[in-house]
Amino acid sequence: MAHVSLRVTDQEKLWMESYAKLNGVNLSEAVKDAFFEKLENEFDLKVVAKYEDDPDKMLHSHDEVKKILGIN
Questions:
Q1: How far is the C-alpha of 58 from the C-alpha of 5, rounded, in Å?
Q2: What's the whole-model pTM score?
């Protein structure tokens, strides 16, 4: 397994350790989870931006969707 090290201030280390403890994980897991969550969020935002830029997308109001689905 690969090893990664980070340089942080003493205060940052305390915050990171506190966050890990609060979430019931070790520091390594907390940092890894935070990194991959950020990565997923950025990917999701790019997908949404791509969709919003699509000139062929169809948008419907709630009332239109109800009518399409036959919901009164």
A1: 47
A2: 0.68
**Residue 2 CB-half CA count within 13 A:** 3
DSSP code for 16: H
**DSSP string of 21-70, one letter each residue:** HHTTS-HHHHHHHHHHHHHHHHHHHHHHHHHHH-TT-----HHHHHHHHT
Residue in this structure with the two tokens 């931006």, named with its chain if needed: 49
- Residue-wise pLDDT for 19-67, tens only, equals 999 999 999 999 999 999 999 999 999 999 999 999 898 889 999 999 9
Rounded-to-integer distance, Cα 40 and Cα 72, Å = 37
* Domain residue extents for the chain: 10-69
Instruction: Give CA–CA dist 52/70, Å, rounded.
Output: 27
Looking up tokens 């019931």 gives 24
